[in-house]
Write a structure and sequence with these properties.
single chain; rod-shaped; alpha+beta; 117 residues; four-stranded antiparallel beta sheet
Length: 117
């Protein structure tokens, strides 16, 4: 077999110029796609880091109230902060009461007895 013979192994293993161009385009497209994918992942990571490190107001910082008064001898059953009030449920002498306290001033807004049906 001679080198000019198209059936020789050296001739068939080489690529044509057209095949090289197609493979080059495919490589460039793949590189571009991978670059976009990596940029997308970086954007997601940056968004997660930003969200984790941003300063949020703590629930404790919303309340300036330092003490809540309840009757002497009462047993506190629950304390629930809701918007700008704190609802304290306590039991005193066998009677259960709910006390609604303003979080800014500490004033008792309302006291509600809890009765059994």
């Amino acid at each position: 077999m001679t080198k000019s013979d198209p059936s020789s192994p050296e001739e068939t293993s080489e690529m044509t110029d057209e095949a090289r161009e197609v493979i080059g385009k495919a490589r460039r497209s793949f590189g571009f796609s991978m670059s976009i994918l990596i940029l997308g992942f970086m954007a997601i990571v940056l968004a997660l880091v930003y969200r984790a490190t941003r300063d949020e107001e703590s629930a404790a910082n919303r309340f300036t109230l330092e003490t809540i008064s309840i009757p002497i001898g009462a047993v506190v059953l629950s304390i629930v902060p809701v918007n700008n009030v704190i609802v304290v449920t306590y039991e005193n002498d066998g009677q259960t009461m709910m006390r609604i306290v303003d979080t800014q001033t500490g004033a008792i807004e309302k006291e509600i007895p809890v009765i059994a049906e």
